[in-house]
Amino acid sequence: MELALADLHVSVSDPASASMNFLNEVAARFPDAVSLAAGRPYEGFHSAADLPRYLDTYLAHLERLGLDAAQRDRHLLQYGRTNGHLGELIARMLAKDEGVEVPPEAVMVTSGAQEAMVVALRGLCAGPEDVVLAVDPCYVGFTGAARLLGIEVVPVPETASGLDPEQVLAVARAVRASGRRPRALYLVPDFANPSGVSLPPAARRRLLEVAAEADLLVLEDDPYGLFGLDGRPGSSLKALDTDRRVLYLGSFAKTCFPGARIGFLVADQRVTDRRGARTLLAEQLSTVKSLLTVNSSPIAQALVGGFLLESGCSLRTAVKQKAAFYRHGLRTLLAALQHSFADRPDVRWNAPDGGFFVVVEVPVDADEALLEVSGRDYGVLWTPMSFFHSGDGGRRALRLSCSALEPAQIEEGVRRLARLLADRA
User: Fold this and answer.
1) Are 5 and 387 a contacting pair, CB within 8 Å?
2) Residue 361 in contact with residue 347, Cβ under 8 Å?
3) How far apart are CA 333 and CA 336, in angstroms?
4) Distance between CA atoms of 425 and 419, rounded to whole angstroms?
5) Distance CA 342, CA 336 (A)
6) What is the mean pLDDT of residues 11-28?
7) Greatest CA separation for the chain
8) Selection from 160, 231, 230 nearest residue 195 by Cα
9) CB contact at 8 A, 191 and 39
10) Chain-centre distance of CA 211, in angstroms?
11) Contact, 219 vs 177, CB < 8 A?
């Protein structure tokens, strides 16, 4: 039997999904190229030899809680609670690191932050009139998840200093005036992927006021917040949230390791049913998660649980070495760009104050064709910014990532990029 692509769901041929597949294929074809495209964490921080220690730490924790050997085995080896076993440890972590006080029942453990996005989108958007607003350019995992679910994403352009709250309000009002319901706003307020931009403190407070005025929920995605250049803790939107407007999406991929595939969703909003009974949104959303993954792997949860317990449930403590490495990598990348392009006024870049990513504006189309040439002939990979835009934006810009590389590799990658752009000029 032969199927027509036009008869398959639009997500199968979604441009964002295709773009990520293209990046993987390019990386596989040019394995010796320096990859300034990958936003994955550095591989030198963990090894498989760490896993038994994390498991033992977590099992000892279960024993202290009073679980006997049979109960501990069942805890790890059987289907588990849909919303996971780490709610208490994650709640302690949020209180220590972010000043966010939520009950353990408000925490859903997910199979990566990607599942948290799908659960939140599916649970919040009840009908075809429900849409979500999202920063533009946007992480393709979010826009792809919305497309998979058939949910419209309305872009809100990002400025050099992050989202403009007044623009968010204007877009939300225009959506409502068109007969649709703006249900939520998605953003990465700290060192965003792909732009590297952070939202200033005053804009964060105003954004929460706008959310109340426009009757919006806020989906705060925070995978990079611990990796600021100054090392000082900032205030997450959830920490400023006094109206329970913010759903907080967290991930252990960058702080622990991505192979565990453990993220979480904090949804402490109250939900009232027709009889007046109240529950927490995280508890209600468990039905959605149960139909996606039944539950997140208890063994993977145990690994992350052991990692948290070793640091006293403080990720800020756990990632000090990693944060220093990433700070050095970002400073190396910015210095390398200055060294290679100081005499090229047609090449410009931003200077994020943390995170993994820098955006470079170039005088040529930074498309798939140029990336192919870059990998094949110059041995360097990067990500076209057009992949992250909803329209035709980012055509002459590229994203560089410094997270997975040693400083010498970063410098060599920028030198190769400079040769490419010099030849193209």
Assistant:
1) no
2) yes
3) 5
4) 10
5) 10
6) 77
7) 70
8) 160
9) no
10) 21
11) no
52-317 maps to CATH 3.40.640.10: yes
pLDDT score at 17: 64
Question: Is the bond into 345 cis (omega within 30 degrees of 0)?
Answer: no
348-349 sheet: strands from edge to edge: 348-349, 357-361, 397-401, 383-384
247 forms bridges with which residues in the sheet?
A: 219
C-beta of residue 248 within 8 angstroms of C-beta of residue 107:
no
| Phi-psi domain of 8 (left: phi exceeds 0; alpha: psi -120 through 50; beta: other) | beta
Question: What pLDDT does residue 26 have?
Answer: 85
Which value, to the nearest 10 degrees, does the dihedral of the CA atoms of residues 188, 194, 196, 199 take? -30
Across the chain, mean pLDDT equals 95
Q: pLDDT of 283-337, one tens digit each?
A: 999 999 999 999 999 999 999 999 999 999 999 999 999 999 999 999 999 999 9
Name the helix (H) or strand (E) containing 190.
none
Distances (CA, A) of 24 to 37, 114, 248, 401: 10, 18, 29, 15
Distance CA 143, CA 242 (A): 28
Core vs surface per residue 369-380: b (16+ CB within 10 A) or e:
ebbeebbeebbb
Helices (H), 178-267: 201-213, 237-240
d(CA 219, CA 222): 10
Q: Indicate the pTM of the whole model.
A: 0.96
Q: How far, in Å, are 39, 171, 297, 364, 415 from residue 194 at the CA level?
A: 9, 22, 29, 19, 22
pLDDT at 16 over 70: no
Separation of alpha carbons 54 and 141, rounded Å: 29
| Annotated domain spans of the chain | 8-37+319-424, 52-317
Segment 44-83, tens digit of pLDDT: 999 999 999 999 999 999 999 999 999 999 999 999 999 9
Classify strands 397-401 and 357-361 as parallel, antiparallel or unpaired: antiparallel
CATH number of 8-37+319-424: 3.90.1150.10
Instruction: From 374, 382, 359, 379, select the one nearest 424 (Cα to Cα).
Output: 374
pLDDT class of 425 with cuts at 50, 70, 90: confident
- Alpha-helical regions (H) of 2-111: 15-29, 51-64, 69-77, 87-98
Phi, psi of 42 (to 5 degrees): -65, 135
Position 15 confidence tier, pLDDT thresholds 50, 70, 90: low
Which range (16-20, 119-123, 311-315, 372-376) has the least confidence?
16-20
